[in-house]
Design brief:
Length: about 120
């Protein structure tokens, strides 16, 4: 079980000029002092990136934020891929086929969604 704050992590570009914030949902389990409202989303700050001086550029900071905000989905997808590979390595044909099914029906869509989110989609 993961110990990180729950997903989905979202990106806020509206709260402070020159700063992009990645936030996780605010719940009773992760009440913290830095919980705040970001637009219509109440969350806890995961990280903040500045881009005031052009290093990184605003576009680079946004891309970095997308990648960071995707971390929980990437972890989930990797766990599915790992389980599929574990099953596929078994000599039992039925277990191998289960692994193939997991890989194509469950893991691949999660991987593609995570990649799309990480790339700003």
């Amino acid at each position: 079980m993961s110990k990180h704050t729950p997903r989905p992590w979202k990106i806020d570009t509206t709260s402070q000029q020159g700063i992009i914030t990645v936030v996780s949902p605010w719940t009773d389990n992760n009440r913290v002092e830095n919980s705040a409202t970001f637009g219509d989303y109440r969350g806890s700050i995961i990280c903040q990136m500045e881009y005031n001086n052009g290093v990184p550029t605003k576009e680079q900071a946004e891309a970095n934020a997308c990648l960071i905000a995707t971390a929980p989905e990437l972890l989930e997808a990797l766990k599915e891929v790992s389980e599929a590979i574990r099953l596929m390595r078994k000599s039992d044909v039925n277990e191998h086929c289960k692994g193939v099914d997991i890989l194509y029906k469950i893991a691949q869509p999660k991987v593609l969604q995570a990649i799309d989110k990480a790339e700003g989609g």
